Amino acid sequence: MSTSTILLLLIVGAVLYAVYLYNRLVSLRQTADAAWSDIDVQLKRRYNLIPALVETVKGYKNYEADTLEKVVKARQLGMNAGSVKEHEQADTMLTQALGKLFALAEAYPDLKANENFLNLQQQLSEIEDAIQNARRYYNAVVRDYNTRIESFPDNLIAQKYHFTPKEFFELEESEKAAVKKMPEIKFD
């Protein structure tokens, strides 16, 4: 083989490898976008249940208006959120407000026994589980994507074609503390 043939094969090989790296980055970016879309769908499902929950609780004379207002405000913030950070903050606010709402329901035996309320509570619980699963998957894909765009030689392609890091969808510190806190168990 001549030197020019070897040089041509090396150039073709380098171009093919660069195309492979580019396509792998595009694939990871698309997977991360799809994973975010899955989270967004679950968040919207939760936001759609909130009005029914609020109306169910409002049906009780002595409901806590302040708590309901916080739930409605957090829902609205979530629906208007644009970035991952904004969704993260709204998610934390809504989780805390719903936690207070369900804790208050303990003081109203009729509400606690209301079939519609129990059904909504069950649906929200299932959606919360789906959100957590979607969050874990999204964060894993984002970790892989961010690692690739920072690793050599992928970072050369990432810089040239403007692949930017994606944000993780994490629990806020207050939500982390609530998750870690053990429930108080009393035996009467």
TrEMBL record:
Gene Ontology CC annotations of this record: membrane
Keywords on record: Membrane, Transmembrane, Transmembrane helix
Protein known as: LemA family protein
Species whose genome carries this gene: Nitratifractor salsuginis (strain DSM 16511 / JCM 12458 / E9I37-1)
Topology in the lipid bilayer: Single-pass membrane protein
Alphabetized InterPro entries for the sequence: LemA-like_dom_sf, MamQ_LemA
Similarity remark: Belongs to the LemA family.
Main location group: membrane
Keyword Transmembrane found: yes
Domain of life: Bacteria
Residue intervals passing through the bilayer: 6-22
Protein localization: Membrane
